[in-house]
Design the sequence.
């Protein structure tokens, strides 16, 4: 039932379990030197409906960076349910990045669930098409556990994208931060539903939820729904949400300097997203995200910048 | 270089400029003075094409072209620059990125290749030294966290980078102390040549001690009521604006 797919050294490895699950195990004290990239490309001949599981177990004092990238060819109506779950044990650090670059007809549901005794950083980047629902559940299970969850969504057309993040403090003096930014165009609907729960006898909880949204069209809709359920006194929990358009004065200032309006808009939109992209600790990934976000904002998601096949295809069009 | 003919402009339905006539020649420094509400900022905003203002009558010719027919970015590419009275902060957009985009757009308009990264950085350093802008400010987001004086100096820095043919300084002296004023004026004077021109819009005569005008106009209630040489500025300083109402 279990098969070692990739040996990462020092006892760490990626295992295949059954025919739809992957498990990453990092033993106690082992720190992976390089990020683990799990990339899925669903193409012309792949099954349209699958359930997928990725399990990540970080033993005490271990460390790993994991990047999960999903791309699908456009035009095929994939219906995918993906679970990513696991444990970040005491003293361990997991930095997990989800790059969602699905094609337009996709319906995708991410269920992310982690029990955190150490430190979790989670970045959810929704740059593709399709309707994407991402449910993130983080449980801070030991004193001093931290969950730093951020994300960005660029959606257009008739896309519906939802990020529902729930963080539960089950131990004292835990910390959580949520920062989600959305740029919505066309008739897209983007939702941020943030729930922070602090259970009884969890003093010293430190929580900040932030939802920032830009609507580029009159018909785009952004919904920000922060919630707090606090059952302990002596906590510091706050949340803030803004929905707006681009700053017209800033746009005009740039135009007066000779920057055409559409370029000025792109500069402002990139600046808006940078606060989230800057949180990514893997240099190459951060730069790739900037390039991809720029391409997406310019309406071109289907061609990778560094790929000869894509660039040639682009020239032919 | 610039010819404004019978310019009428309004904002939110209210007429502010009521028939402005001004001609600025190559290499000239013109001062436009006037009390608050006379239309000084309206004039500068209309020239650079701010969308809040509507031109209801008249024309503006800049280097032989119909200025009012051009979008704001093309007016800039043709050589028009405005030093804003209240420069806006643009968090997240770095000065480097901003200036590189502006410089390369101007080069594109003129049919030139964009500057290579190292050439651009060299240009930035050169111009920074020319106007005395602190290098740490050049590495920040546009105007973010800048003091009033630093913002004004940053306007002159951008002017040095873009090398305009006609620079409009809109109340550049407001909010500046004498030292900051002198530094800004020095920058403007260094950039002024026989082939470019400057319009200094100011309420007070003080700045004109440092940037010496060839011609002084007085704007009052949307009209130019007096045009004379530099001595007019001194006369306004001594007598105020009231004596012009008659």
Sequence:
């Amino acid at each position: 039932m279990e098969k070692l797919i990739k040996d990462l050294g020092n006892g760490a490895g990626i295992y295949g379990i059954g025919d739809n699950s992957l498990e990453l195990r990092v033993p106690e004290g082992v720190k992976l030197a390089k990020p683990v990239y799990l990339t899925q490309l669903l193409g012309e001949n792949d099954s349209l409906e699958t359930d997928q599981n990725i399990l990540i177990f970080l033993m005490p004092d271990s460390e790993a960076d994991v990047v999960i990238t999903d791309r699908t060819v456009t035009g095929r109506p994939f219906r995918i349910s993906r679970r990513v779950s696991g444990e970040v044990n005491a003293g361990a650090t997991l930095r997990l990045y989800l790059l969602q670059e699905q094609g337009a007809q996709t319906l995708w549901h991410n269920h992310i669930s982690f029990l955190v005794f150490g430190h979790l950083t989670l970045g959810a980047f929704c740059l593709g098409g399709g309707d994407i629902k991402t449910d993130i559940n983080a449980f801070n299970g030991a004193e001093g556990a931290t969950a730093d969850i951020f994300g960005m969504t660029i959606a257009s057309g008739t896309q519906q994208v939802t990020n529902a993040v729930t963080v539960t403090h089950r131990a004292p003096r835990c910390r959580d931060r949520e920062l989600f930014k959305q740029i919505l165009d066309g008739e897209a609907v983007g939702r941020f539903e943030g729930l922070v729960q602090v259970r009884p006898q969890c003093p010293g909880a430190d929580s900040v939820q932030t939802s920032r949204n830009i609507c580029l069209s009159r018909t785009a809709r952004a919904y920000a729904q922060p919630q707090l359920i606090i059952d302990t006194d002596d906590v510091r929990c706050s949340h803030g949400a803004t929905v707006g358009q681009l700053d017209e004065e800033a746009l005009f200032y740039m135009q007066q300097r000779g920057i055409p309006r559409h370029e000025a808009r792109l500069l402002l939109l990139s600046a808006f997203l940078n606060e989230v992209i800057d949180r990514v600790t893997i240099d190459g990934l951060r730069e790739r995200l900037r390039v991809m976000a720029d391409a997406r904002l310019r309406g071109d998601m289907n061609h990778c910048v560094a790929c000869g096949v894509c660039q040639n295809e682009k020239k032919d069009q | 270089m610039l010819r404004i003919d019978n310019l009428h402009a309004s904002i939110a339905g209210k007429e502010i400029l009521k028939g402005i006539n001004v001609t600025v020649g190559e290499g000239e420094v013109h001062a436009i003075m006037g009390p608050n509400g006379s239309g000084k900022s309206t004039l500068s905003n209309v020239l650079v094409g701010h969308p809040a203002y509507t031109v209801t009558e008249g024309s503006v010719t800049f280097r032989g072209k119909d200025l009012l027919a051009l979008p704001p970015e093309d007016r800039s590419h043709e050589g028009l620059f405005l030093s804003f009275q209240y420069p806006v902060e643009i968090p997240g957009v770095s000065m480097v990125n901003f200036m590189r985009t502006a410089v390369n757009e101007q080069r594109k308009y003129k049919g030139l290749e964009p500057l290579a990264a190292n050439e651009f950085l060299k240009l930035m350093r050169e111009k920074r030294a020319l106007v005395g802008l602190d290098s740490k400010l050049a590495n920040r987001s546009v105007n973010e966290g800048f003091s009033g004086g630093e913002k004004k100096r940053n306007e002159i820095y951008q002017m040095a980078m873009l090398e305009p043919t006609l620079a409009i300084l809109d109340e550049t002296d407001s909010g500046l102390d004498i030292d900051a004023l002198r530094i800004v004026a020095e920058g403007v004077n260094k950039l002024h040549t026989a082939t470019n021109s400057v319009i200094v819009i100011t309420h007070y005569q003080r700045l004109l001690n440092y940037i010496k005008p060839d011609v002084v106009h007085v704007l009052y209630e949307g009209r130019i009521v007096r045009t004379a040489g530099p001595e007019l500025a001194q006369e306004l300083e001594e007598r105020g604006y009231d004596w012009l109402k008659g």
